[in-house]
Amino acid sequence: xxxxxxxxxxxxxxLVSGNRIIYVYTVDGxxxxxxxxxxxxxxxxxxxxxxxxxxxxxxxxxxxxxxxxGSILVDHIIKKALELGxxxxxxxxxxxNAGAFRLYQRKGFCEIIxxxxxxxxxxxxxxxxxxxxxxKDKILIYEELSLNALPALQTQFYDGWIxxxxxxxxxxxxxxxxxxxxxxxxxxTEKISECERRYFAQDQPTVFKITDGTxxxxxxxxESGGYDVLTxxxxxxxxxxxxxxxxxxxxxxxxxxxxxxxxYFKLSxxxxxxxxxxxxxxxxxxxxxxxCGRIDICGNAVACGMCVIERxxxxxxxxxxxxxxxxxxxxxxxxxxxxxEAKRHGAHTSYLQVVQKNHAAVNLYKxxxxxxxxxxxYRVKKEKA
Length: 385
What we know:
CATH superfamily of the largest domain: Gcn5-related N-acetyltransferase (GNAT)
Radius of gyration: 24 Å
Number of domains: 3
Strand content: 25-35%
C-alpha cells in the first residue's frame, strides 16, 4: 500500500480528538482487518452533524480477503452508525475497486451522490439510508426511474400518490395506474374513492401499483375492497462495473425513431391502430437518454430492445425477439449489446422489470448477472357480474 504521511497524520489527529473510531477484526490476537467511522468531514456529501456519518478505510489483509471479513466489518459499522443515532452513512470507493463497490451495493449503499475524481483517480461517493426506510428509499429510486422511462400522457398528483393516465387499460398498466410512492395525510379509504372517481371520469378502471415498499395496510384495504392481484413482477438489478459486455450484430440509434418503433410494433404484434398511436405518443415524451437497438439478419429485424439511461442507471425495456427466431440467442445478444453501449455512455447499474411467471426471461436475466431487488404487482377491482 502506498504510504501517505499526510493521511496518516490526519487519521491520528482524528483519533486523538475523538472524531474517528476504528473497529479492528482479529482472530486469536492476529490483526486481519479494520474499518472506521468519522463523525465530521469537511464535506457535506460525507457527513452532516446528527444525520450522516462517514464510513472510512475498510481494510482486509490480502491473504484473508474473499473470506467474508469485509462483509462482517461493513455490517458492524452500519450497526454502530444506527446505535449512534444516525439515519445515513456514506462511503467513498475507487471506481477500479469493483469488489468493494459490489460489496457496498449489496449492503445497501445504492445511491451514488457523487461521480468524479481527485488526485488519486476516479471514484464514487455512495450513500446508504439506515433503518426501516433504507429499502423504501431504494425502491423509490427505481420507481422514479421507471416513471421517467415510460411517461404517462397525463399525470396527476394527489396527496403523495401519482395518478397516471394513458388511454386506458388496453395499453399498459404501468402508464395507467395509481402509484402510492410518497407519504400521505388523507385517510386511505377517502383517497381510494377519489381515485376511483377520477379514473371513472376518464372511462378507465382503477388500477393500483403496489411494491414491497408500499404500506401493507393499503394493500390489505384494496384486497378487502375487491381488488385482485394482477401481474406479479420482479424488478431486477445488475452491477455493470463487474462485467464486460461485447456488442454483437446490433444497430443502435440514440433516439426512438419511426423505424425502430415500426420494428418494435411488428415484433410485439401491435396491430391495433389506437394502441400504436398511444405508444408512439408515450415514446415521443421520453425526455431522458435512450439507446434503441435492433439485430438484423438477412435484412430482417429478428430482435429489438431499448435502454433508458438516467443518473447512471440503465433500464432495459421492450426486449422482443421475433417469435420464429426465439431460442437462437438473439434475446441475450440484444441485451448484452445494449448493456455494452450503456456502459460506454457511463451507466454503472442496470435494472429491468420482468413478469415473475416468465421463467425463460427470468433465467436469461439471472445468467446476465441480474438479481431480484424487489417485487411489485397491480391491484385491479373485480368487475361485477
